[in-house]
Design a protein that fits this description.
The complex is a heterodimer of chains A (300) and B (360).
Chain A (H helix, E strand, L loop, with lengths): L9 H26 L1 E3 L5 E3 L3 H6 L5 H34 L5 H15 L2 H11 L6 H8 L10 H29 L3 H9 L4 H29 L3 H6 L11 H11 L3 H39 L1
Antiparallel strand pairs in A: 1-2
Helix pairs in contact in A: 1-12, 3-7, 3-9, 4-7, 7-9, 9-12, 11-12
Chain B lengths: L3 E8 L13 E8 L4 E5 L6 H9 L6 E6 L2 E2 L5 H4 L1 E4 L11 H11 L4 H14 L15 H13 L6 E5 L7 H18 L3 E5 L2 H7 L2 E6 L2 E6 L1 H6 L4 H6 L6 E4 L1 E9 L2 E9 L7 E5 L4 E4 L6 E10 L4 E7 L2 E7 L9 E6 L5 E4 L2 E3 L4
Parallel strand pairs in B: 3-8, 3-9, 6-7, 7-8
Antiparallel strand pairs in B: 1-2, 1-4, 4-5, 9-10, 11-14, 12-13, 14-20, 15-19, 16-17, 16-19, 17-18, 20-21
Helix pairs in contact in B: 3-4, 3-5
Classes of the chains: A mainly alpha (300), B alpha+beta (360).
Amino acid sequence: MDKTVNQKAWFLVLPVFLVVAFSAILPLMTVVNYSMQDTFGNNQFFWNGVGWFKELLDPSTDLGSRFFASLWRNLAFSAIILAIEVPLGIVVALSMPREGWRVAACLVTLALPLLIPWNVVGTIWQIFGRPDIGLLGYVLNNMGIEYNYVSNEFDAWATVIVMDVWHWTSLVALLCYAGLKSIPDAYYQAAQIDGASRWAVFTAIQLPKMNRVLLIAVLLRFMDSFMIYTEPFVVTGGGPGNSTTFVSIELVKIALGQFDLGKAAALSLVYNLIIIIVCWIFYTVMTNAGAERRDEKGVA
Amino acid sequence: MARIDLVDLAQSYSGNDADPASFALKPVTMTWRQGGAYALLGPSGCGKTTLLNLISGIVTPSRGKILFDGVDITPLSTQKRNIAQVFQFPVIYDTMTVGQNLAFPLKNRGLPKNEIDARVAEIARLLDLEPFLSRKAMRLTADAKQKISLGRGLVRSDVAAVLFDEPLTVIDPELKWQLRSKLKALHRELDLTMIYVTHDQTEALTFADTVVVMHDGRVVQSGTPAELFDKPAHTFVGYFIGSPGMNIVPAEVRGREARIGGHPIALNRSYALPAGAKVELGVRPEFVDVATPAPGLISANIERIDDLGRVRFARLRVGDVKFAARVPSGFSVSGDVAGLVFDASRVHVYADSLLVEGAA
């Protein structure tokens, strides 16, 4: 049957197109524009071509060294929190009750940190860790452990990491719990009958059945930690020195602190590109995993 | 390999003090002999899966004992009971190959590798899984997966019994037939006690040499398929087994004569029934013939004729009661009233749903 061709439908897309253009495309183009130009104020701009990008990607320059330092710092941070939050989230999910009122109690308790705004989380830990009035800082110092996140790099990192773990492990745990709940009882019964140990049940049933939600958890946590700004900014302000200055903090420093619009624009475009590439990799991996599953159903 | 005895076994999911009428499994005492092929047959919710889970140890009984070869194993966990069970839906370990799946129960029990390999190879041969042994189990079709589940159930040679909980539900009809014959063959070859739960009478009757019929948490009869067909111990067995099921008609019985709605029917035996009992006659449609109405025959209104190809059954109404009867080949039905001819030796008398044995 022939379909009626009616190109007028395109007009229905127009409002969305206008809104997106106004809110996303035009601002992005401004950034692209800035990244190609230099200014000495007075709203006078000079063409700079790809100069800023060259400088940014060359570690021997000041801009390049700052960019790469913050990028490695950021990747290390993401790797560390993933290495802690994913196993911890799995353990929490495994030890959660499977039925009764305690399920609701656990879910609500776990959801609480997720509901707290980023800057409040930062403030909580900023005060909690202070050696003079913060409970954590006070107790640690009185126990003879010298702890000061303002002056000690290790302490600053530890604080930022523990804060992130406190804030986000719940998310991983909730996702894993959902994955665990979807495993039919028959699997556990069969494992019992097959004489499987607790560890074998985990590796042969629970982990494989959780792998999809785990992939989502890793993706979400990676993206979130790669873009982290508010919490470390509130707690350490990127210090001591530059030791907790992540890419986004560096970006804001350049753009709003030094008002180097060209450098900041180039940095944000590269930052954006990295995020898009990582997203694409995850997306491909996930859809491939999905296709494998569809395959399997198609044969069945 | 073991004889399994159930002693006064009962299960209530709402506590031991609950009303006995609400028990999922009412107290039962019975014996399953070593090497037997049993089917547990009954409608959904009759307690058959409960009974199976009690034997395998997934559920701990509220009352009673389970003995394997005379040893009380009631308090033992599933692992220690040495039972294999196959579930309704295929349970496979996704990350393992078919061979690893089959070897899993043996590996967990720490058997030497050469024994495991030999046993896995044997089971794979019996189930035609050999070509798949090194493939990932996750990629296979539903029936291949269920074969793996069956294989994991059968792979241990020392099990007390293999329990099947409606294992062919997800299998296509023609494959069902194949797998069922396969199971039957495996039973002969492996000399294992097998208990097969199903609500499908064809499955039960073709698989088992002893069929245990359950109804409302009770075992109402256990016997060979022929016994269940010829002499149902309970009216439920009568109409649950057979297609169409047995006719159950309220009647008055005195000595050698029964009356249905005032019409007399001669009986082969003489019955003395307790007063006040609900008395019914039971007779399979195969043993009642439709005939031209005549004096002395019970007359019934014909509602429709079901032609099953090989045989025709008339659906009738005797008074208010639905009735089915065979239409003899060559007999052409005319009009909407027919007479019924009973095979007296096949008419059973039930008091309060239980079979009453008459005296000669």
